[in-house]
Design a protein that fits this description.
48% of the residues lie in helices and 7% in strands. By secondary structure, it is an alpha/beta fold. The chain folds into 3 domains: 1-145, 3-Layer(aba) Sandwich (Rossmann fold), CATH 3.40.50; 225-306, Serine Threonine Protein Phosphatase 5, Tetratricopeptide repeat (Alpha Horseshoe); 313-454, DNA Cyclobutane Dipyrimidine Photolyase, subunit A, domain 3, CATH 1.10.579. It has a 6-stranded mixed sheet, sandwiched between helices. The longest helix is centred in the middle third of the chain and has 24 residues, at 283-306. The radius of gyration is 22 Å and the shape is globular.
Length: 459
């Protein structure tokens, strides 16, 4: 593979302190949880080699991440266990410690000459990095590796819709969609004395975490970079050719299933994009998938970075809040509580199947996610209540919940990144979706049967 210089737009010093005299370079890993195709890691290796220091990768395992539960932690730890092994093969020490991630990074930084971190986008991730940059006694450098086009290069303002950010991203893609070669550290970490947890006993680590254990792990989607690569290869081999035709047909399986792996940083969006670009399928099919992977996903990143209320009803555009306010007292033909919806106890068999897919597999076909969320708005007493239910269920059951795309998708259901449509009861001018429309575009009865099989087979 041809080596690619890390574009300077990916690199951002977070403080103005000098490089210190510590015994190693620290890569504080949190978002980019992988040992390959990781700009932050490769930058850290490069700096360690230039400074003639060994490299240590540190990870802070907190049980206080908002709304994360056993399902999420199991998936994440499966990935970190593989990352630890891959780093060891590269001669890099991986240190996992329990505690607040920022404090773990600060504790390790006391022995480091330089701290390199990856970039996280949601509020808590940004706060961790702010604290480390403010309190560390050495230089802290952030290297962005989980977007094809770095977020600040794409746009520094809240974008109205995909059509406003698309040209900004499209013109920059050739500059940033480049391969990345793995570098080998010149110095060994073998003599360093640093305490950390072994991920070989993953069950033991899970038992020590004070987390919600009511949402069980799933077997259909194992965590880790190897599983991500296998899933991607299968999609390119069997599903990509029909993606443009079947992407809105939930009874099929011609989708990539990359969202959960991207959420935990177990695979790079650049690696996915380059693999799709090289696939022997028509250009139109590639463009359709890359629109979702790059433009739509990075519109979501823009949303959480530029809208301080990204996870609240207040994030919606003024026109959407106005039309929903005008129709908030409209009668609802059906009204359900959050518990009834969570238990899939509605009159709509298609919706119930979608809810069951979410609960039992940690995933829901994207077209059904749209239908699922629109119906929650239709069946809730108020739009504010509907927004809370959507986000609560989304974050609780999806493996990729609590992600920029999840927050943007929730907002889209209520008009975010969209435009006014024809006016109707309850929705006002918010885009509407119906069961009859689902039946015209897909075969939802076959989708229900598919979900039944998944649940019966213990997904």
């Amino acid at each position: 593979m041809t080596a690619a210089r890390i574009p300077p737009e990916r690199i951002r010093p977070l403080n103005a302190r000098p490089v210190g005299n510590g015994g190693f370079v620290l890569y504080w890993m949190q978002q980019s949880q992988r040992a390959e195709w990781n700009h932050a890691l490769e930058y850290a290796v490069q700096q360690a080699n230039e400074l003639s220091r060994p490299l240590v990768v540190g990870f802070g395992l907190t049980d206080g991440f908002p709304e994360a539960n056993l399902r999420h932690y199991r998936f994440m730890l499966e990935g970190l266990r593989e990352t630890q092994r891959t780093l060891q093969r590269r001669g890099i020490r991986f240190v996992l410690r329990f505690g607040d991630p920022a404090q773990v990074a600060l504790d390790l930084s006391n022995h480091a000459c330089l701290v390199v971190c990856d970039r996280g986008y949601v509020r808590i991730q940004r706060e961790w990095r702010r604290r480390v940059a403010e309190r560390a006694s050495v230089r802290v450098v952030q290297v962005e590796s989980d977007a094809v086009v770095p977020a600040d290069a794409a746009s520094r303002k809240a974008e109205f819709a995909a059509r406003t950010i698309r040209p900004k991203i499209t013109r920059l893609v050739p500059k940033f969609l480049l391969p990345l070669r793995s570098l080998r550290p010149k110095r060994s970490t073998g003599t360093l004395s640093l305490d950390g947890e072994s991920l070989a006993d993953m069950q033991g680590i899970l038992k020590r975490l004070n987390i919600d254990r009511t949402v069980l792990p799933v077997s259909l989607y194992p965590g880790g970079s190897s599983a991500a690569h296998e899933t991607l290869e299968n999609f390119i081999r069997t599903g990509l050719k029909d993606y443009d035709t079947n992407r809105n047909r939930p009874e099929t399986d011609d989708v990539s299933h990359m969202a959960m792996y991207l959420h935990f940083g177990q695979i790079s969006p650049l690696e996915i994009a380059l693999a799709v670009q090289a696939a022997p399928v028509p250009r139109s099919v590639k463009d359709s998938y890359l629109e979702e992977l790059i433009v739509r996903r990075e519109l979501a990143i823009n949303h959480v970075l530029r809208n301080p209320h990204y996870d609240k009803y207040a994030c919606l555009p003024a026109w959407a809040k106005a039309t929903l306010r005008q129709h908030r007292k409209d009668p609802r033909a059906h009204r359900y509580t959050a518990r009834q919806m969570e238990d899939a106890e509605t009159h709509d068999s298609y919706w119930n199947a979608a809810m069951r897919e979410m609960r039992f597999t940690g995933y829901m076909h994207n077209y059904m996610r749209m239908y699922w969320g629109k119906k929650i708005l239709e069946w809730s007493a108020t739009p504010e209540y509907a927004f809370r239910v959507v986000l609560s269920l989304n974050n609780k059951y999806f493996l990729d919940g609590r992600d920029p795309s999840s927050f943007a998708n929730a907002g889209w259901l209520f008009g975010l990144h969209d435009r006014p449509w024809g006016e109707r009861a309850v929705f006002g001018t918010i885009r509407y979706m119906s069961a009859s429309g689902l039946e015209r575009k897909a075969d939802p009865k076959a989708y229900v049967a598919k979900v039944d099989r998944l649940v019966e087979n213990g997904a």
